[in-house]
């Protein structure tokens, strides 16, 4: 059948507005939602399917050379915070690919967006050939960032790590290849050769030739006291600036440290440091690859009212496509930023759907959905700690200070510190949680913590009830 076009239509626009396609997508959505309703809570594996899971995991180990961290292999069906594995078990997923799946598993709106994206002529879009959705994606991020900062431009790339590589290149070019970088203790930047060297985890750079000069600052330490912690870190920064004048291309800051332990700091901590860096002509790079969208504002710098200081910001994970945003002053010369792949068309479609829902869905602000979910988490976690004091012993940090701050984090980045932050016990606990029906992860470098990145787009506050019931069983088994 030949399509009849109006004068203002392309063949492409006619295809994407086809009533036949709309009807087919409605049918698919109905089937997905019908099956999802069968997943109502955690359940154990079915014995007859265990061999199937074991077989797949063996194949995964053989092809990669190392087995997966968890015996996780999805069946392809989930329902929000719940996910079914190929062994028939259903688990509460509170890590979501380390924050990638903000709307959980099988969200019908994202299923529809992905299908519509798959109808495009381009499976992958890049920096040479792209369609309108790539421009719309970049425009959305740049416009949102510009509301409270000087951000103007957006470079799209295929991972958070590559967004960070782009940010570093911008900073180096702006400072005429200044060779040194200032970062915070316990930071994480990604796993490319360069980012592995900047990140403060020795295991991630074993066997890598070290050719990046990185100077580390202590992060905020609440136990020290606000002003004393600011003074100490500022002293270290001023010493670096004095020792290496004109040699630093950037100061990198995760406003909420992810891998490092979901560590937070007050606005005045960053203001003092950013003012000193600005005075020395050092660009400020805000890494929000993990925190973007998860605090009480879309950009974390907006929540802390730091936009005036930021020269470059990187985002990723929940956005599906990743990006490096920067001010007009940081706009690079031709040729510095490019790439064969930016993202898949389905990633742009789902990313735009996510961003629009976050903007208009009541997620942000002190009374938004994210704040309410975090409050529910804290209520359950603090009651859990009070009920089981034997599981929560004082935690000693890297400076030898002890504290009893067992429940921490902000927004959709939630942390719990049992067993004095002991790595081995927390590792055992994570395995027990997985077996019992809760997927979590760890963070921190000593002390270690339980890390939760629940799907804040769809998880309901009351769902922490069954999660903590499972946790009680898992903790008891760990002791």
Give a written overview of the molecule.
The protein is α/β, with parallel strands linked by helices and 479 residues long. The chain folds into 2 domains: 41-101 and 365-479, Alpha-Beta Complex (Aspartate Aminotransferase, domain 1), CATH 3.90.1150; 118-360, Type I PLP-dependent aspartate aminotransferase-like (Major domain) (Aspartate Aminotransferase, domain 2). It is built from 15 helices and 19 strands. It has helices at 11-16, 19-36, 50-64, 96-99, 108-118, 132-146, 160-174, 193-198, 226-243, 267-279, 300-303, 345-360, 369-387, 423-436, 464-478, and strands at residues 74-79, 82-85, 90-93, 124-125, 151-157, 180-184, 213-217, 248-253, 284-288, 312-315, 322-327, 343-344, 395-396, 402-403, 407-410, 413-416, 438-439, 441-443, 449-452. The strands form 5 sheets. Strands 5-11-10-9-8-6-7 form a 7-stranded mixed sheet, with helices on both faces. Helix 5 (108-118) runs antiparallel to helix 12, helix 6 runs parallel beside helix 12 and helix 14 (423-436) packs across helix 15 (464-478). The longest helix is centred in the last third of the chain and has 19 residues, at 369-387. It is globular.
Radius of gyration: 23 Å
Largest sheet: 7 strands, mixed
Low-confidence stretches: none
Shape: globular
CATH superfamily (homologous) name of the largest domain:
Type I PLP-dependent aspartate aminotransferase-like (Major domain)
CATH class of the largest domain: Alpha Beta
* Record field, number of beta strands: 19
């Amino acid at each position: 059948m030949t399509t009849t076009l109006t004068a203002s239509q392309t063949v492409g626009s006619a295809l994407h507005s086809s009533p036949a396609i709309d009807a087919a997508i409605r049918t698919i959505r109905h089937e997905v939602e019908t099956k999802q309703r069968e997943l109502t809570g955690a359940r154990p594996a079915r014995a007859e399917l265990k061999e199937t899971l074991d077989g797949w995991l063996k194949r995964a180990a053989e092809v990669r050379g190392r087995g997966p961290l968890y015996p996780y292999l999805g069946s392809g069906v989930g329902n929000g915070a719940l996910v079914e594995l190929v062994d028939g078990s259903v688990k509460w997923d509170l890590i979501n690919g380390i924050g990638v799946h903000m709307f959980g598993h099988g969200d019908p709106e994202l299923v529809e967006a992905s299908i519509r994206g798959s109808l495009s002529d381009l499976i992958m879009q890049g920096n040479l050939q792209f369609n309108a959705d790539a421009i719309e994606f970049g425009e959305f991020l740049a416009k949102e960032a510009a509301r409270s900062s000087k951000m103007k431009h957006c470079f799209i790339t295929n991972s958070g790590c590559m967004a960070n590589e782009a940010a570093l290149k911008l900073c180096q070019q702006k400072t005429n290849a200044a060779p040194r970088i200032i970062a915070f203790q316990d930071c994480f930047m990604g796993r490319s050769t360069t980012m592995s060297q900047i990140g403060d985890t020795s295991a991630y750079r074993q066997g890598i030739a070290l050719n990046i000069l990185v100077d580390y600052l202590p992060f905020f330490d609440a136990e020290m006291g606000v002003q004393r912690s600011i003074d100490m870190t500022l002293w270290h920064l001023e010493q670096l600036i004095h020792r290496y004048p004109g040699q630093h291309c950037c100061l990198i800051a995760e406003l909420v440290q992810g891998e490092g332990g979901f560590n937070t700091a007050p606005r005045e901590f960053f203001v003092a440091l950013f003012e000193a860096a600005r005075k020395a002509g050092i660009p400020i790079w805000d890494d929000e690859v993990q925190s973007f969208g998860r605090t009480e504002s879309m950009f974390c710098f907006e929540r802390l009212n730091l936009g005036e200081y930021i020269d470059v910001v990187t985002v990723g994970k929940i956005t599906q496509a990743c990006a490096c945003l920067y001010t007009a002053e940081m706009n690079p010369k031709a040729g510095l930023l490019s790439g064969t792949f930016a993202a898949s068309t389905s990633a742009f479609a789902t990313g735009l759907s996510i961003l629009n829902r976050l903007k208009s869905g009541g997620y942000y602000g002190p009374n938004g959905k994210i704040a309410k979910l975090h409050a529910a988490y804290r209520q359950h976690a603090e009651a859990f700690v009070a009920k089981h004091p034997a599981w929560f012993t004082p935690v000693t940090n890297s400076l030898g200070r002890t504290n009893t701050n067992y429940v921490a984090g902000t927004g959709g980045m939630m942390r719990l510190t049992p067993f004095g932050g002991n790595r081995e016990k927390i590792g055992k606990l994570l395995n027990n949680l997985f077996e019992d029906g809760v997927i979590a992860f760890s963070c921190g470098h000593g002390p270690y913590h339980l890390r939760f990145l629940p799907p804040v787009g769809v998880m309901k506050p009351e769902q922490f009830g069954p999660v903590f019931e499972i946790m009680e069983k898992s903790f008891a088994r760990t002791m």
